[in-house]
Design a protein that fits this description.
It comes from Rehmannia glutinosa (Chinese foxglove). With 130 residues, the protein is of the alpha+beta class. It is 26% helix and 38% strand. It has a domain at 45-128: Nuclear Transport Factor 2, Chain: A (Roll), CATH 3.10.450.10. It contains 2 helices and 7 strands; from the N terminus they run αβββαββββ. Strands 3-4-5-6-7 form a 5-stranded antiparallel sheet. It has a two-stranded antiparallel sheet with strand order 1-2. It is globular and about 40 Å long. The chain starts with a helix and ends with a strand.
Length: 130
């Protein structure tokens, strides 16, 4: 689980530093300001969250529901393993490790990012962990 935690943090940081451009057929491209990013010794401001907190669980369930809508999928929320938050100019970005069950009863875990501002929630990243 420690290895997944490290990869989760790396994905969350990378998703903050990289953007996807359709000009490159969806391949990752450095964001224009990524070269000016702080060095790794800087406090990134990540805050660990309680995975039993109903509000955090609701974000995990939202992520699964939103993914299902966007991909015509039928994943079922099962558990929340990890949760962190970081404040960014657009709001608060939540990084979650969520377990979900597929229609054929396969249990998988997913790295998820949800952006929350004062008016709405948006699923910004969803990937099955290998």
């Amino acid at each position: 689980m420690a290895l997944k935690s490290l990869s989760f943090l790396m994905i969350l940081v990378a998703s903050s530093l990289f953007s996807v451009s359709t000009a490159f057929d969806g391949r990752k491209a450095l964001a224009p300001d990524a070269a000016d990013s702080p060095s790794p010794s800087v406090d990134w401001g990540f805050v660990p969250l309680n995975t039993k907190d109903p509000k955090v669980i609701e974000l995990a369930q939202f992520a699964i529901d939103q993914y299902n809508k966007e991909h015509n999928s039928k994943l079922v929320y099962t558990a929340l393993f990890e949760a962190i938050a970081v404040s960014i100019p657009q709001g608060t970005k939540y990084g979650l490790i969520v377990a979900a069950t597929s229609p054929n009863n396969e249990l998988n875990d997913y790295t998820v990012n949800v952006l929350v501002d004062t008016n709405n929630k948006k699923l910004v990243f969803f990937q099955e962990n290998q």
